[in-house]
Amino acid sequence: MTDREQAKSSAPRNAKSSAPEKNAAQTARSLAKPRRGRPTSERAPTRRPADSNAQAALASRPIDDVCIDTIRTLSMDAVQKAESGHPGAPMALAPVMYTLWRQFLRYDPEDPTWLNRDRFILSNGHASMLLYATLHLAGVKAVNAAHEILDQPAVSLDDIKAFRQLDSRCPGHPEHHITTGVEATTGPLGQGCGMSVGMAIGERWLAQNFNRPGLKIVDYDVYAICSDGDMMEGVSNEAASLAGHLMLGNLCWIYDSNQVTIEGHTELAFSDDVAARFRAYGWNVQHVGDANDTRRMAEALKAFKASPDAPMLIIVESHIGYGAPHKHDTSAAHGEALGVEEVRLTKRAYGWPEESSFLVPDGVREHFHESSGRRGGELRRSWLERMQDYREKHPELAARLDQMQRGELPKGWDSALPSFAPDAKGLATRESSGKALNAIAAHFPWLIGGAADLAPSTKTDLTFEGAGEFESGYYGGRNLHFGIREHAMGAILNGLALSKLRVYGSSFLIFSDYMKPAIRLSALMGLPVIYVFTHDSIGLGEDGPTHQPIEQLVGLRAVPRLVTLRPADANEVVEAWRVIIRQTQPVCLALTRQKLPTIDRARYASAGGVARGAYVLADSPKKNPAVILIGTGSEVSLCLEAFEQLERDGIAARVVSMPSWELFEQQDQAYRDEILPPEITARVSVEAASTIGWDRYAGATGEKIGMHGFGASAPIADLLKKFGFTREAVLAAARRQLERGRGRSR
């Protein structure tokens, strides 16, 4: 079924297409002109027929042409009705999309969650109508939140008519959690490219670990359409470099080289020889000189299928469907409808009924089903037969694969988690995290990950026997090496999570800034990606302010659906990992470079309170504390030191460890009031980071000890003293709070 053809790929150099047409109408209608790859018999009429005659004429045209033009006209009509969107790219790329889906994509519309389906990513998500129109015409079935296939379309014609409207299943950019058939949420350029590399890595890992002689259960390809903008973004280039290094021959990018961006022709800022660049990355390169040349496009895709040892870039020359009157005025091509008159004229050029709207001619859906639908169904049924044989011969592996697809946890995943004895010297939380991670991963066969060249420092190497390395030639290892590519690492992690692996990636907290777009998409898609960030404060010392995070924690906490955890000692780290593994959303773990005391849990509260985001770690034996000290991470030990002194001074105090704002906010109001009683307003928060947001917990009159500028380069002890992270500073703040309260009562 999946043996690749034994042909060699050609690699012509990238050539520039002509500049955008100066006349908007001429540009749009130029798509209907006969081009190489479309026989004379398929050419559209050039004179305007009456609508009735046009509908009759459609029946006599080759069905492939009608299908392509249906994608185009649906895109035009949807954007026009919404008066918003990008009609040009869908119009230009319709022949490319049709060729891929009809002849090559292994995809069964009846089961869009089929494990061994090919993955398609529209990285240039502004061309979303290209995907929505195809999903509709292909008859892809909807899947609900319980992963049940419904007897209704993923994208109906009514959905298309509601393009870009509130609660529509056709939002402005494709969203994975909204529309069945959308494999990844895309829009920020380059992210889809990075996620496609993650999916290709995921396929290689699954194939290496699950396929057995004579039983190929995993053998799918990953396709992505990308744009000039994707080629310019750094994330796509990082991802392409790694894909070439790993020789991911299951990955194909189709580059729509139309030389148009919002500001104008790409010559304003982009003159790369893209083909040469990708060859240097280790990719094969094919060239299709005309997006309408479906025969040449098919040849290029056949060359990809015949090249198992390197990824493929297919450069497709196209004219954007709608240009602008002036060379440097093409914003309309990227965010506006064509206009009623231009839509009518373009339909005339297609030989399409001019007054029609959202027309799907007879036979179009049937032809999609007859070609791609029937082929995909046959491939899936053949796979199901192999899978049944596989279940009988390899029941444990089959059960594991099922668990992965359902998002279940393996039995005993937490059976070897360590417990740490009290220790005044303690461990850096990056050290205890590494121990916890390895204890979990040894019992969690599909937990894989790595670092952006920092695993020895972030302590994220999997060191148990059999963990292995993921590398070209052997794709079964669980240690991934991303190189110094944080931006791509984040996107690749999302692609891996979409492939149902449980994944983590690590770097220094300061470099989370490089990963923010991918982290945000993790949260938007609800992917349980684990981000392990170390060197979480000025406590890293001599490296100085360029590496000392200040605003990163508050930035991460601002992301909806993202959980951030900053544990205070080794046992809080262990409990944080318990929380992380159970999450169905992304988590950021912030860890120290410096050692922290391991808290005596016989004297203070259990670390199990981490699961609720905040808990009372130390409390006065008196009924009500006079002052509350709230800390996270490395500053909790300072709060405990201050607490002990206050107790010796006869002052009732409470220490609240608050490793996660998000988890705390998920608790009911009664629990939150129990931890932070509203009537106790004498409060001090302590965190070696920006104080923005801490007034929520310290209160309007509370004191916030934190960073109000950048750090400095010096030994850690000098830094902590200079910036006020000492027991004395916390005590002084607590006493000021008590004095303020006494003054108010007088």
List the helices and strands and how they pair.
Elements lengths: L23 H6 L21 H10 L2 H20 L5 H17 L14 E4 L5 H11 L2 E3 L5 E5 L3 H5 L29 H20 L11 E6 H5 L1 H12 L5 E7 L2 E2 L2 E2 L8 H8 L2 E5 L5 H12 L6 E6 L14 H4 L4 H11 L13 H30 L1 H12 L16 E6 H13 L5 E5 L3 H4 L20 E3 L4 H13 L3 E7 L3 H14 L4 E5 L17 H6 L5 E3 L4 H13 L4 E4 L4 E4 L16 E5 L7 E5 L4 H13 L4 E5 L3 H5 L3 H7 L7 E8 L4 H4 L4 E5 L8 H7 L4 H19 L1
Parallel strand pairs: 1-4, 4-5, 5-9, 8-9, 11-12, 11-13, 13-14, 14-16, 15-16, 19-20, 19-21, 21-22
Antiparallel strand pairs: 2-3, 6-7, 10-17, 18-20
Structure description:
The chain has 746 residues and is of the alpha/beta class. The chain has 3 domains: 24-381, Thiamin diphosphate (ThDP)-binding fold, Pyr/PP domains (Rossmann fold, 3-Layer(aba) Sandwich), CATH 3.40.50.970; 423-597, 3-Layer(aba) Sandwich (Rossmann fold), CATH 3.40.50; 608-745, Rossmann fold, CATH 3.40.50.920. Helices cover 40% and strands 14% of the residues. It is built from 27 helices and 22 strands. A 6-stranded parallel beta sheet has the order 12-11-13-14-16-15, with helices on both faces. A 5-stranded parallel beta sheet has the order 1-4-5-9-8, sandwiched between helices. α22 links the parallel β19 and β20. The chain starts with 23 loop residues before the first helix and ends with a helix. Residues 1-49 and 322-333 have low confidence and may be disordered.
Helix content: 40-55%
CATH superfamily of the largest domain: Thiamin diphosphate (ThDP)-binding fold, Pyr/PP domains
CATH architecture level-2 label of the largest domain? 3-Layer(aba) Sandwich
Shape descriptor reads elongated
Which strand order spans the largest sheet, edge to edge or round the barrel?
12-11-13-14-16-15
In terms of per-residue confidence, which ranges show pLDDT below 50 for 5 or more consecutive residues?
A: 1-49, 322-333
CATH fold group of the largest domain: Rossmann fold
Number of helices: 27
User: What count of structural domains?
Assistant: 3
Radius of gyration: 29 Å
Strand-residue proportion: 5-15%
The average pLDDT is 90
